[in-house]
Amino acid sequence: MKKNDFITLEIEDIGVGGEGIGKAEGMTFFVKDAIVEDVIEARITKLKKSYGYARLMKVLKPSGKRKEPKCLVARQCGGCQIQEIDYSEQLKFKERKVRNNLERIGGFDRAFLGRVMEPICGMEEPFHYRNKAQYPIGTDREGYPVAGFYAGRTHQIIPNMVCALGKEINTQVLEVVLDFMREFQIPAYSEETGRGLLRHVLIRTGFHTGEIMVCLIVNGTQIPHAEELTGRLRKLPGMTSITMNINCENTNVIMGKEIRLLWGKEYITDYIGEIKYQISPLSFYQVNPVQTEVLYGLACEYAGLTGNETVWDLYCGIGTISLFLAGKAKQVYGVEIIPQAIEDARKNADINGIENAEFYAGKAEEVLPDYYRKYETEHPEEHAHADVIVVDPPRKGCDQRLLETMVRMEAKRIVYVSCDSATLARDLKYLCGNGYEMKKVRTVDMFPHTVHVETVVLLSHKSPDSHIDIKVEFGEGKGKVPLEAIAERAKKYQPKPKITYKMIQEYVEKKYGFKVHTAYIAEVKRSLGMTMYDAPNAVEELNQPRKHPLKEKVEAIKDALKYFEVI
Ligand SMILES: C[S@@+](CC[C@H](N)C(=O)[O-])C[C@H]1O[C@@H](n2cnc3c(N)ncnc32)[C@H](O)[C@@H]1O
């Protein structure tokens, strides 16, 4: 077999990127747009030692799972990868993908997963769900402006104004913009030359409000005859905000930093549940409003809030989960790396009159450990507290330093929202190896017709939840517990009080006349192989060289540990 050879394949499986997988002459081939149970003719495009890639040339016998795509350019366009697969099969594929990762990477037992995994939440109407679209503008061979989407992994524009995932109004907006460009000879931007004006058209729609935003991304500071354009766009029902965004850089990044208002408001408004949001062209906002409510509802259900809880929402974006949970919690803290998003979160809390949500700009893996360290240093007898921790990290998952602090904080419940089940599985392995138990897993199809899937997991801290039921009979006789023995036994089994670093420090100072730093106590405990769950300086020590106490201090600390029967 060699490159460009034609092969016949029976497709047996589906790869993580949605491609069909089949075998020919002992070699595994990956074929885009081929579907399980298809028999196809394909041309080899790349050969490796034991596998290769091939291009689908002809479907010889179509699979029963094959569906006529709604979109005419489904194959060429890079937006959807699996539109040709029947939707119920897409859902099975996504569930399987998550289960396989939890099994292979997370090391969870298949039977156990069968018990904790709840059925995937799919969409009733899996088309036209996106509330945001960014259309690149280009020029066709005849020199006319076109709008569409990039072909997969390229910047070649596939002209298409009727995307099956976007809102129907998008087509009307694009028709107005392209007509205007033709009439007033407004040139489309060219990535090759860096010349031309209009680069992209961003369209956003408020799902509950019907408000529409159009933002024209331009390589310049002015749009000639802009009033004519806004006048035409304003006639479309729901038009609320027309802005332009200046991006004169030679870059792949779509949006520039500066926004100028052309007509209407600077933002549109929408709701998730009861919470109102102001969304500007640069704001991050979930793109599937129907499934966002499902996802957040699930996160809220798993958080099990009664009104008394302190909740940390890490990787909080514009605070959408934080604000969604705030009404059911005592206090919510949100942490996000992008300062602009934190400003939006605070503004959205204000708009909704929410006073029990505080937001911090910074890296989750720095803000939480810093809080933990500071709290335990200032309150040595107490434990830095969180009832529920919610994490919703980007695809790379949670930082190890953050996971370590989460384990130390011993939150009763962790709700992990993930957009990448491989990194989710890796992080769950760590958390479940360090005091947590996986209780529930549910996938939510936020992006039908693409290979992406969101997963929500509930983890519960083992100690407070575990209990055993014992039946005891009191009195005299076989199998009964004599009453007089009860007091004696109770004394024996009385839980030992928690020995704090402060108690050890006070004991040493009283007996030996010198002070010992908490980091030294931690170091001695570590040298004795003791569990370091509650060492307040452990994270600090990962970043800095460990402190080594003098011998006399080591002996004094060991003496204190013996005195308190810790060793
Ligand atoms: C998947 S989004 C979740 C956003 C939000 N929870 C929501 O539902 O809209 C992940 C967020 O994490 C933020 N982020 C990325 N790295 C971070 C870090 N190290 N610390 C805090 N936030 C981070 C990103 O800016 C992004 O807003």
UniProtKB/TrEMBL annotation:
Q: Which GO terms describe its molecular function?
A: rRNA (uridine-C5-)-methyltransferase activity
Q: What does the record list as GO biological process?
A: rRNA base methylation
Gene3D superfamilies annotated for this entry? 2.40.50.1070, Nucleic acid-binding proteins, Vaccinia Virus protein VP39
- InterPro entries, per database record: MeTrfase_TrmA_AS, MeTrfase_TrmA_CS, NA-bd_OB-fold, SAM-dependent_MTases_sf, TRAM_dom, U5_MeTrfase_fam
Q: Where does S-adenosyl-L-methionine bind?
A: Q286, Y315, E336, D392
Q: Does the keyword Aminoacyl-tRNA synthetase apply?
A: no
Q: Where is the TRAM domain?
A: 1-58
Transmembrane stretches, start-end: none
| Active site, UniProt feature | C419, C419 (nucleophile)
Query: What does the record give as EC number?
Result: 2.1.1.190
Keywords in UniProt for this one? Answer: Methyltransferase, S-adenosyl-L-methionine, Transferase
Query: What is the superkingdom listed in this entry's lineage?
Result: Bacteria
Q: One Pfam family of this protein, by short name?
A: TRAM
- UniProt similarity note: Belongs to the class I-like SAM-binding methyltransferase superfamily. RNA M5U methyltransferase family.
Recorded hits in NCBIfam families, A to Z, give: rumA
Q: What is this protein called?
A: 23S rRNA (Uracil(1939)-C(5))-methyltransferase RlmD
Annotated source species: Sellimonas intestinalis
Gene (UniProt): rlmD
